[in-house]
Amino acid sequence: MASIIDVQHSQLISLPTDVIELILFSEVIDYLSLTRLSLVCRRLHTITLSNKIWKLQGKRRWRVWSFCSGPSASLRIADVTDWKGLFVSRFFSEKVVFSFLNRISCDYLMVDKSNGLVDDNMIE
After folding, report:
1. 31, 49, 86, 102: which is deepest, by most CB within 10 A?
2. What is the DSSP string of 19-43?
3. With contact defined as beta carbons under 8 Å apart, do 2 and 11 qualify?
4. What's the pLDDT band for 13 if we cut at 50, 70, 90?
5. How far apart (Å, rounded) are the C-alpha atoms in residues 124 and 100?
């Protein structure tokens, strides 16, 4: 049976910061896992704020980082200082756009259905 000392030394937070960051760079750690991990304790919260980690998360989620439109048009990747903030902003913008596109699709589907262009079998 493991003693209390053995259990304490086997915890993630007992690892050096560099090792924890290497674990967080893993392909299996996604943005949701990072967010949940940041709620565990102050030390992990501080580690999960790393710009390097959020830059990697952003590049994994969005292969192309285009700043060619909107208020951030003059922003370059080299100018970004808050990668987590950019990730969160882009994530919520993506949700708004997908919701809007879904609403448009449903509206057009209803118009096509009322015009007889779509039958119920095509919807399923």
Report:
1. 86
2. HHHHHHTSTT--HHHHHHHTTT-HH
3. no
4. confident
5. 21
